[in-house]
Write a structure and sequence with these properties.
Blueprint lengths: L2 H20 L10 H6 L10 H7 L7 E5 L7 H5 L4 E5 L3 H14 L4 E4 L11 E7 L8 H11 E10 L3 H4 L1 H8 L9 H10 L5 E4 L5 H4 L5 H9 L9 H10 L1 H4 E4 L2 E4 L7 E7 L3
Parallel strand pairs: 1-2, 1-4, 2-3, 4-5
Antiparallel strand pairs: 5-9, 6-9, 7-8
Helix pairs in contact: 1-9, 11-12
Length: 278
């Protein structure tokens, strides 16, 4: 069995669980307005250390393509440092947040294409970037091949060392009564790249996830942080809140001035990149 076949098997198990427990409609936009807003950041903010590393690969005359770029958390600040940024994303909710954020920031050299990456035609750039998307791509080889074909100079992929859905497995089992199906992560992606004959550089970026940096000073803030992580459906929100509150002391510990989730494994952002030509 190839690495890409194992990748697909894992995601088939995820899809089966979602359909069985949640009746998930594959045509529906999973990024509700609430979730989409969590990924809207100020484009004019000082670059975080991780984004500084990514920005270091860009040249002022580059065209950046951000595959699955959502609300523009990465592409909009980078648009201020290159010639043009193009976001490819199928979510209309994410697209609405992107448009509002771009227009509010006065950025004129960024645009979006509302499409799945595999359906987007004629899009290419000097650097093709994708953050937190590969976890969910069942047919990973064609996805990577298209990234590479569209990149005149470099492909860049970032993933967290612990896939964000997997980090919520304890909460998921608490609410739904069974273990969460494992989402593939950087190990499975690297194996697939090696099978394709791609030997990328892998860099551990310096800063932990932004959601781990937030101080949770009250019990209510801690409960809300767990609910906003995206692991629970809107329809289950009230039940989830009650379950988290009932199990609060098992789920959280108080350290110093804030609550810390016991279930979250420490995670770091990983940059996987390779040159495609110059």
């Amino acid at each position: 069995m190839t690495a890409s076949e194992r990748f697909a098997i894992l995601l088939d198990a995820v899809a089966e669980q979602q359909a069985r427990l949640h009746g998930t409609d594959p045509s529906a936009d999973p990024w509700t307005g609430r979730l989409a807003r969590l990924f809207r950041f100020d484009p004019h903010r000082p670059l975080e250390p991780n984004l500084e590393v990514i920005a270091g690969y860009l040249r002022p005359d580059d065209v950046l393509v951000d595959v699955g770029g959502g609300a523009g958390r990465v592409s909009l600040p980078l648009a201020l440092r290159c010639r043009e940024a193009i976001v490819i994303d199928p979510s209309p909710n994410m697209g609405a947040e992107f448009d509002a954020c771009r227009n509010g920031a006065g950025i004129t050299n960024a645009r979006r294409v509302q499409a799945n990456w595999m359906d987007a035609d004629g899009v290419e750039g000097d650097v093709v970037f994708s953050a937190d998307v590969a976890y969910f791509v069942r047919d990973i080889v064609p996805f990577i091949e298209k990234l590479q074909a569209a990149a005149r100079r470099r492909v860049m992929i970032t993933l967290w060392s612990v896939s964000p859905p997997n980090s919520e497995a304890v909460l998921y089992e608490l609410l739904y009564g069974e273990p969460m199906a494992h989402v593939p992560g950087f190990r499975e992606l690297m194996s697939s790249l090696w099978d394709m004959g791609i030997l990328p550089d892998l860099t551990v970026l310096p800063e932990p996830p932004w959601w781990e940096i937030n101080l949770l000073r009250t019990r209510e803030e801690a409960v809300r942080d767990a609910l906003e992580s995206g692991w629970v459906l809107e329809r289950d929100m009230a039940v989830a809140r009650e379950a988290i509150s009932r199990n609060f002391d098992r789920l959280f510990t108080f350290e110093g001035e804030s609550y810390r989730p016991r279930w979250r494994q420490p995670s770091r952002e990983l940059l996987i990149t390779w040159a495609t030509g110059d």
